[in-house]
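Pilot study result, target chain (169 residues):
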Amino acid sequence: MTSPLYTHSVPVFKQMLTALKTILAQASEHAAARSIEPDALLQARLAPDMFPLLKQVQIAADFARGIAARLAGVEVPALSRQEKSFADLDALLVQTLAFLDSVNAAQFAGKEGADIVLRPGTPKEKKFTGQAYLVHYGLPQFFFHVTTAYAILRHNGLPIGKRDFMGAY
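Predicted structure:
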């Protein structure tokens, strides 16, 4: 039997990040077709104290890799975080999807009760079981950043809807 931790994480991350990858390609084409400076979209935000689109995508990818790695019991891949363009974000999502393809359901088996410690030894240390980490922390964080990236682009005129957000399922 496939671990529910795997079933409720990796396939979901792949679906949503693939949809986000498609939306970002549409945003790049939208900017080019309308002579919009790409950085105007990449640095767009919904509120002054929120991260811009570029950072929302980076964080969504970070959460997908981090959650999958921790639950699979493998090292969290470190990436450069030097993205500055739509092409860079596309490459980040390609790398993230490749990492998600590298973990398998067997690695998640029995990890529901595993100890997951974030930011160990710091004042921001958080301890979870594997199940609580995924359900109460990881998935909400991931969806917040994917949804915010979508909302930033929609707010800035990209003609996308729920089907674009959901991608293929």
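One observation from the pilot: Residues 4-166 form a domain with the Four Helix Bundle (Hemerythrin (Met), subunit A) fold (CATH 1.20.120.450). A full batch analysis is planned for the follow-on phase.
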